[in-house]
Structures are given as C-alpha cells and as structure tokens.
Amino acid sequence: MVTAIPAPYREVAPGFTDEALAAKGVRVIKRESVEIDANEGLLFHARQNAAGIDFTKWMLVVGNDSSTKIVTAAFPTSGTAKLSETLKGVVLSVRFVEMPGPHEPVDVGFTVVPSKKLRPNPNVRGMGKVLSYSINAVAKSPSEPFFTATQSHGPIIGFEREQFAVYRVKDLGKIQGTSIVSKTRVDVDGLQGFEVVAKGKDVETSAPLVIYEMILFLKDDSYYLMVGAVGSSLAGEYLPEFRKMARSFKRAR
C-alpha cells in the first residue's frame, strides 16, 4: 500500500516515533535511515496484532520538501521465512516519478463526483489509482478536510470483510485512538461493503477528528477504499460531503 501526505518529509517524519506507532498497536522491532532517489527516508520493521492475527510490516516513510510517501507491506508473521525479504525489497524499490501536469487527465479506473467545497490535490496526481481532494495542497491544520479514493493492489488476508473495514479505519497514518461511531452495510455501483464513521485524534497535535470510510469489495476480496477526515468542529459540514462523494463512486465501464 502506498499513501501520500501532502506535507514535507521533515514535518512528517518526527511524528513516526516508537511511542506514536505503539499507540496504534504497532510495535517497532527496528528502524533505520535510508535514501531513495536522493530523498531522505526511514525504514521500519514492525509487528502488529489485528483480529487475533500477528502481522509483520515493512514500512517506508520517504519524501522531500513538498510531499511524503508511506509505503507499507504487511503479511502474517507465520509467513516470515517465505515473504519477509521479498516484501522488504518491494518496499525499498519505490521510486519517484514526475507527476502529470495540472491539466493532464489521470485514468484511475473509477470516478467520484467531487464536492464543491473541496478541490483536486495536485500533490497526488499520477500516484497510482488515487483520487484526492482537499482545501489546500499542503494542509495548514490537521483539522482541514480531505478525501481520498483508491483501489487496493490485492485481496484482504486473514480478515472477514467486516473485520477488515474496522481494522482499516483504525490503521490510518497520523490518526490515533480511533473509536467506531457507526458501521453500516452499503451497496454502491453493484459492490457490497461498509460505511464506517469513527472518531480519533491527530498524532502530533491531539486535535479531535471525525473519520469517514467507505470500503467496497470485489469478488476476489480486493477492494476500493474511500476515506475522509476533518476536525470535529467541522464534521457537521463535511461529513455529508464525504458521504455524497463516496456514494457517487462508479467504476469505468
């Protein structure tokens, strides 16, 4: 999984302390500094228990003066001998490429109807099958609303679908202490899934946040994921916008 944060690496990296990760249930085994395409980075070897299953993770945090990428490979710890070194190599193989210009179309294989209150974020254009919307290209506050939509690169492993929907909303970068407010079954564009609303706090500032998630599953258990987050004081304004965008989801025909 690749996640983009439209903020400089030197602002994001200090938030990835062992204590902050432990608050999300991630136990760091080892961390080391790395360099990818002349960009600074941190490589984490970590463990996490989810739904009673012990997972091992390789997680790379890497970036420059304008954006930061988080590249994660997770697998059941029981498969360490077979998978660990291969997936470590996959994580470290990430490379930076020039993004399309602001007027070049990006085909992600699906569409959502954007809110008039949010605009496409140019910092994540061309980064795989991702659509991202926000107020500012680089957020000035963790309470600013943002919305992303993406497609997974493989099926869920070790989870029932409903379990995974809860696990995924609790495994978002830079948000801690996530608690579920509501969970609803949905059917959008002929795909079944779950709509989850949760509360949490920004890791760095402890600002209270409301998180919206819609996850839609394909027959092979791969999925589409849509996530919105906003400060609690703005939730009444933006939560309906997140829901409207997610429910407008359509696959390319």
Describe the structure.
The protein has 253 residues and is an alpha+beta fold. The chain contains 5 helices and 14 strands. The protein has a 7-stranded antiparallel β-sheet, sandwiched between helices. The protein is globular and about 40 Å long.
User: What is the CATH topology classification name of the largest domain?
Assistant: Protein Transport Mog1p, Chain A
Give me the secondary-structure category: alpha+beta
- Strand percentage, roughly? 35-45%
In quaternary terms, these chains amount to: single chain
Q: Please identify the top-level CATH class of the largest domain.
A: Alpha Beta
CATH architecture of the largest domain: 3-Layer(aba) Sandwich
